[in-house]
Amino acid sequence: MATLTRDDAAKAAQSLKHELGKVIVGQAQVVEETLIALAANGHVLLEGVPGLAKTLLISTLAAATRLSFSRVQFTPDLMPADITGTEIIREDKSTGQRELAFLPGPIFASVILADEINRTPPKTQAALLEAMQERQVTAGGQRRKLPNPFFVLATQNPIEQEGTYNLPEAQLDRFLLKIVVGYPSEAEELEIIARTTGNRSAQPDALMDGEQLLALQHLVRETPAADGVVRYALALVRATRPVADGGNGEISPLLRWGAG
Questions:
Q1: Domain covering 6-77+106-223 in this structure, CATH number
Q2: What is the dihedral of CA 156, 213, 147, 168, to 10 degrees?
Q3: Which candidate among 23, 65, 68, 248 keeps its CA 20 to 30 Å from the CA of 227?
Q4: Distance CA 254, CA 98 (A)
Q5: Beta strands in 42-135 (DSSP E)
Q6: What is the mean pLDDT of residues 106-122?
Q7: Residue spans per domain, the chain
Q8: Residue 169 near residue 125 (C-beta atoms within 8 A)
């Protein structure tokens, strides 16, 4: 595994932001939080109405990190095997002998775009659960390891739109961050118009490979956190729970479930 210093990691993060900025206009907070999740080895759920560059952000990130990229377009008729893969009968042309062979699905990539994940029923959404938690899938009666690093970025439209399904609680728990993508400012929209109506199409430079990303994630895990910071984070989590679990009595009636 490659090694990185903290200065190297900071420079790499700034360089990635710069490369993403070649393609993505604005959305600075969305980019920042996505890179935080990437460094923390967590998955991201991006929520926003269509047309806010959610998909473009993910594909650009994959290009800038030289990681294998796969896109799954979630639709009402998508089946779990369409994600994880399936067994097929393969015939040896020389012998005529037939045997079962596993055909990997799109989940076998380092960066997975689960596009419009809430447009498919929960049964199919659940196909991602094992992959996101265990970094493996069970298909064809065998457990199959996924690439490392492995990063799922899912997009969803607001739930009040027609033709969408609520994500199961178990799946929501697999995401480190849910990031709400808002509309760009007027100046940013003018810049988007200028970029998309011209002849030039900006492309990010590939700055980081899988080994370097793993080194960055390892560095993040090794970074110590002061006791006060840990206790503050814990206090925030406990404040979301019912009073019996240490929550705030004033907001407890407004909450159904606290943070896990």
A1: 3.40.50.300
A2: -30
A3: 248
A4: 60
A5: 43-47, 69-73, 85-91, 98-104, 111-115
A6: 90
A7: 6-77+106-223, 229-260
A8: no
